[in-house]
Amino acid sequence: MKASSTPPAGADTDWTIPQDWRNYTATEHSVWDLLFARQSKMLQGRVTDAFLKGLDVLRLSKPGIPDFEELSQRLRALTGWTVVAVPSLVPDEVFFEHLANRRFVAGRFIRRPDQLDYLQEPDVFHDVFGHVPLLTDPAFADYMQAYGEGGLKAMRFRALHKLARLYWYTVEFGLIREGDVLKLYGAGIASSFGESIYALDDPAPKRILFDLERVMRTNYRIDTYQRTYFVIDSFEDLRRQTADPDFAPLYRRLEALADIGPDDVLPSDRVVGAIG
Ligand code: PHE
Ligand code: CO
């Protein structure tokens, strides 16, 4: 996301651009195929069932970079969401406006073959493979739309940096408990070969039960694997805890509360123990 400005040449007033699916090269499609094969294998038993179901119903295993039109047709029929292409960075209000209207904005470019493991900007693999499968889940789909509306509101309250942490620690890096098994659901983890192992198996990071106020106070690292993950019990539970309450009083309360470091554990935290 970036500060407000006008759309670049070739983009529509809402910053969308054509995906130009026909312009992808064979090499670009093969990068997708490689990442897809590697990551969908890795995620078996690690990612929430809703994600695997999403991959399946959206036919994302079809070879090549997905055509957003075709993908949107399937997705729209399920939860009313569509996927639109944008230049890699769009202004906050543009991003939120799309989410509030059930449009997921995705980059159309794909990383080069020598960048399989690390990339600074989200590409079409992160955006589509990582984010889109969960948009088939009705509760998660509602959460994302509500988040878009909440983003526009947070801008009016000058509290976007607080709300952005909620996105970071759920949509990008969230963990979920299924029964007593810990799974991942965040797109930043699901699209990362290294972090999809680390987030669940490594003893180093903290795993703390989701608490809205705690999350909105917690700084995050963008330069390395996360130090702390927050664990939800279900998407319906997440939706209920965030979409229902009015954040205005919370934003006011947060102004008086100190930020929490990415490594800190508080006495009030409910730390998730032994992973099985
Ligand atoms: N309920 C929040 C508000 O009143 C909006 C929101 C919904 C934020 C869902 C995040 C996720 O601002
Ligand atoms: Co993302």
In terms of DSSP E residues, the strand content is 5-15%
Q: Helical region count?
A: 12
- For the termini, the CA-CA separation is 37 Å
User: Cofactors and ligands present?
Assistant: phenylalanine, cobalt (II) ion
Helix content: 40-55%
The number of strands is 6
Molecular shape: globular
Poorly predicted regions: none
Can you list the strand order of the major beta sheet?
4-3-6-5
Order of helices and strands: HHHEHEHHHEEHHEHEHH
Mean pLDDT: 95
Rg, Å, rounded: 18 Å
Oligomer: single chain
The major sheet is characterized as: 4 strands, mixed
> Helix/strand-derived class?
alpha/beta
Mind explaining what this structure looks like?
The protein has 276 residues and is α/β, with parallel strands linked by helices. It has 12 helices and 6 strands. The chain has a 4-stranded mixed sheet. A two-stranded parallel sheet has the order 1-2. A hairpin with a 2-residue loop joins strand 3 and strand 4. Helix 6 packs antiparallel against helix 7. The model has no long low-confidence stretch (mean pLDDT 95). The site of phenylalanine has 11 residues, from helix 6 and helix 11. Cobalt (II) ion (CO) binds next to helix 5 and helix 8.
Helices and strands in order:
Elements lengths: L25 H18 L5 H9 L10 H12 L2 E4 L6 H9 L2 E4 L17 H8 L6 H19 L3 H13 L2 E4 L2 E4 L2 H4 L4 H7 L4 E4 L2 H5 L11 E5 L2 H9 L3 H9 L21
Parallel strand pairs: 1-2, 3-6, 5-6
Antiparallel strand pairs: 3-4
Helix pairs in contact: 4-6, 6-7, 6-11
The structure holds phenylalanine and cobalt (II) ion (CO).
Phenylalanine (PHE) binds next to helix 6 and helix 11.
